[in-house]
């Protein structure tokens, strides 16, 4: 009983948050970018479709994979142990020739911006509670296995996108490289990224109180960037096991074999360990950037409109009012001074027995400039003083 009294109840907060999140479900959007033919569509199929539709016959790559010519969005609702995930895959048209990548980055950039804009509009609207989050949380950037590091084109596309989205670089078709070549290519790519100040997604530091297994997994994950992956839409039978792989005359390359590629590490990172962090960085860094730009644009627009209004209505409105006021005040002051002088003159004249101030009235009525008035004052004072 005494135990009950000590118990306030907030220890259930994590469960409450958990229940609420589970009820609401999760949303995640992944974009794939890179040259045509690098296996983007195949990898996406390998990453998700096989798991999503376990009972479905997986058709041959040739049957399934078609050339992507526009930004294509596929959404799937997945449920695993009661947790619902709405996964959106954005497949982009790859740059077809090795010279011009403008169309690709423009299409990707426009898509990302559009999702941010939609979110920004929804967030400023009335129904903020049920906003659908379609922002792109991660971009897998496919690097060809046959180059020596990043090409000018890769750098260009990455530079256009790195401030908008979490870029995760990937070495495509890693089955075409030996283990040594993979190692060398990874080093070259990381050096190029560093040299050209490209901001790829940074894995967060592992908390010191995490268990050793997790720390080890985290270390391995960080060490294998950029992930060297293999994709296949074909299921083969190897020693009685059904595996997704690629059949070569000398053997089978297994997509999910950690010795053959980093495919499983990539999938674990994307789905099991870093999905929430990718979403957090999208919200806190990339979206915040976009939002700041939006707000600054809106305020600049307001300033421009205000000055335009002022300019347009200037001669008739604000300016004329303040000018008239100023002028009126000036004139009032002048009149008051003149009246004072007049009163003094009249008193002195009275005292000397001469008649009322001739000509002063006309002077006051004509309201000459300040210099004239000052000169006149001096003269008058000297006359009076004499
Ligand atoms: N060697 C090898 N070939 C692949 C791999 N992934 C896909 N391919 C093949 O590359 C070709 C182009 O793949 P596709 O997914 O259409 O590329 P996309 O244009 O980037 O979407 C297809 O014939 C695939 O079978 C891979 O990991 N290794
Ligand atoms: Mg494709």
UniProtKB/TrEMBL annotation:
Keywords (A to Z) from UniProt: Cell cycle, Cell division, Cytoplasm, GTP-binding, Nucleotide-binding
One GO CC term, this protein: cytoplasm
Record's keyword annotation contains Membrane: no
InterPro entries, sorted: G_SEPTIN_dom, P-loop_NTPase, Septin
Entry GO MF terms: GTP binding
Any single GO BP term: cell division
UniProt xrefs under Pfam families: Septin
PROSITE patterns: G_SEPTIN
Family membership noted in the UniProt record: Belongs to the TRAFAC class TrmE-Era-EngA-EngB-Septin-like GTPase superfamily. Septin GTPase family.
Protein name: Septin
Lineage, highest ranks first: Eukaryota, Metazoa, Ecdysozoa, Arthropoda, Hexapoda
């Amino acid at each position: 009983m005494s135990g009950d009294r000590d118990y306030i109840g907030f220890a259930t907060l994590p469960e409450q948050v958990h229940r609420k999140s589970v009820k609401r479900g999760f949303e995640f959007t992944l974009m794939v970018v890179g040259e045509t033919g690098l296996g983007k569509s195949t990898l996406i199929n390998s990453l998700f479709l096989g798991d999503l539709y376990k009972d479905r016959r997986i058709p041959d790559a040739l049957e399934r994979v078609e050339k992507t010519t526009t930004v294509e969005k596929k959404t799937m609702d997945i449920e695993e142990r009661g947790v619902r995930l709405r996964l959106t895959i954005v497949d982009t048209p790859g740059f077809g020739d090795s010279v011009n990548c403008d169309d690709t980055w423009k299409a990707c950039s426009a898509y990302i911006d559009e999702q941010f804009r939609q979110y920004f509009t929804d967030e400023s609207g009335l129904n903020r509670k049920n906003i659908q989050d379609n922002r792109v949380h991660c971009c897998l950037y496919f690097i060809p296995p046959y180059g020596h590091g990043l090409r000018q084109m890769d750098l260009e596309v990455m530079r256009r996108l790195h401030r908008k989205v979490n870029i995760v670089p990937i070495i495509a078709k890693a089955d075409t490289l030996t283990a040594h070549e993979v190692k060398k290519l990874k080093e070259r790519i990381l050096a190029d990224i560093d040299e050209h100040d490209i901001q790829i997604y940074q894995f967060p530091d592992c908390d010191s109180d995490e268990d050793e297994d997790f720390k080890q997994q985290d270390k391995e994950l960080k060490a294998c960037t950029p992930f060297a992956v293999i994709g296949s839409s074909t299921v083969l039978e190897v020693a009685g096991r059904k595996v997704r792989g690629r059949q070569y005359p000398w053997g089978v390359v297994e997509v999910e074999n950690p010795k053959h590629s980093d495919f499983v590490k990539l999938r674990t990172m994307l789905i099991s360990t870093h999905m929430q962090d990718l979403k957090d960085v999208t919200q806190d860094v990339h979206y915040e950037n976009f939002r700041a730009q939006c707000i600054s644009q809106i305020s600049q627009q307001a300033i421009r409109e205000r000055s335009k209004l002022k300019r347009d209505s200037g001669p008739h409105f604000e300016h004329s009012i303040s000018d008239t006021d100023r002028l009126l005040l000036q004139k009032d002051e002048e009149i008051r001074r003149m009246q004072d002088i007049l009163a003094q003159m009249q008193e002195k004249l009275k005292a000397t027995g001469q008649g009322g101030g001739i000509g002063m009235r006309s002077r006051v009525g004509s309201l000459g400039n300040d210099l004239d008035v000052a000169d006149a004052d001096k003269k008058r004072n000297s006359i009076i003083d004499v």
